[in-house]
DNA sequence: ATTAAATAGTGTATTTTGTACAAGTATATT
DNA sequence: AATATACTTGTACAAAATACACTATTTAAT
């Protein structure tokens, strides 16, 4: 298919999750050029020759969201020769969880892209390349991680209610959880700091606010929810 | 460090585990050339331009061990620009578990290599590149997998005793397990076929032989040992 | 034939973890 | 004051994990 003398291109793509408008969303960019011109894709780019892969992924993340210091994990490397129609592009995919508040999406004068937007994970538009598969695999991985460590805290503000925390789990796992069991389990882990503050009851009964203790993962069995 | 016009090279390295002489071992090759001439390394090679990464890893595995149809899983992609002293080489690492019996190690007239040998995982020689890190990470992953699915069966012969099975778990997890609990748990999973055969008591009391049913993973919670 | 040595095999009691499930409490609104 | 809404809390049961010690079968030695 390709000449053996042709070289591989190596990129990184980053699946960026957030919770916005009560939905789990991923950041997508609209492609300005072929292949897949006009199609939505997950943000990505070439890995520079003297840059670690992690650094490249962080760079992509920062270009689009201006966010740094975030949970970013290498997901999988996708390298089917047919995943790109005209070149051999191997992509090392990452995923990240961020809070969507105080984030300004940007193109950064990037002629590669005509739009940047959050899209509901459970209702995606047609995507370029194998990006649908990449997102699905990310979601699977996030769910696995959630069983072991409360990475959902990346999605929440500094101070949050237990209901908000539970909601973030429900959005990721895509199922309802029992309120009493959820609280019991979480409080038993003693990773939450109970604050003496309450939501300024915009609605009904104010809810107590919590924050995370410095995260020290690996509780005995490490499992959270299944 | 490198000129931005220089291209990445992309390889795959495969950590191959086996149990031999009552020890958990990995397959290492001795490098014939610089860099790290004469040092031990895990087997690897360039990914061909029209080959999937999985296919490349399987090819490497077959070149060295003549084994096919084996549990092979992508581990992680290592891409630190400093991991190779003179080039930018990104490697997509895999790991595999195989039975060491009926395996003939081979160089396949490969001038890259002067030796191929099994080495105890818990007592490795100095290794080329970041291969020590890759092996350590493989081991971590194998342990994680072991909690969910009985991949240890890849290490055992067709017919085996419960003691042998337990031993393989103990070697990988590097700790003793309780015999009665181990058996109870495994038998409850009904993935074992109890045979009407026994070890031809080379030593003391003969032990019953078992084989695996067709593996259907994902029992309810999926966990085995911690 | 008896005994010793080695490995195989087995069951119960306790603790921990997971799950199912419903009523009372604090605030805002009317 | 009554009502609506979201917040908070505990117990009983089931399932899973863990701790723990003796008997059984064979070979080898006397």
How many helical stretches of chain A? 4
Shape, principal axes of CA atoms of chain A: elongated
Query: Helicity of chain A, in percent?
Result: 10-25%
Q: Which consecutive residue ranges of chain A, at least 5 long each, have pLDDT under 50?
A: 216-223
| SS elements, strand count of chain A | 9
Structural class of chain A: alpha+beta
Provide an overview of this structure:
With 226 residues, the first copy, chain A, is α+β, with helices and mostly antiparallel strands. Chain A has helices at 53-65, 131-148, 162-173, 179-188; strands spanning 9-20, 23-31, 40-41, 44-46, 71-78, 89-97, 113-120, 192-198, 208-212. In chain A, the strands form two sheets. In chain A, strands 1, 2, 3, 4, 5, 6 and 7 form a seven-stranded mixed sheet that branches. Chain A has a two-stranded antiparallel sheet with strand order 8-9. Chain A is elongated, with a radius of gyration of 19 Å. The N and C termini of chain A lie far apart (44 Å). Chain A binds chain B through residues 1-10, 47-53, 74, 76-77, 79-81, 88, 90, 92, 221, 226, and chain B through 1-10, 47-53, 74, 76-77, 79-81, 88, 90, 92, 221, 226. Chain A binds a DNA duplex (30 and 30 nucleotides) through helix 4.
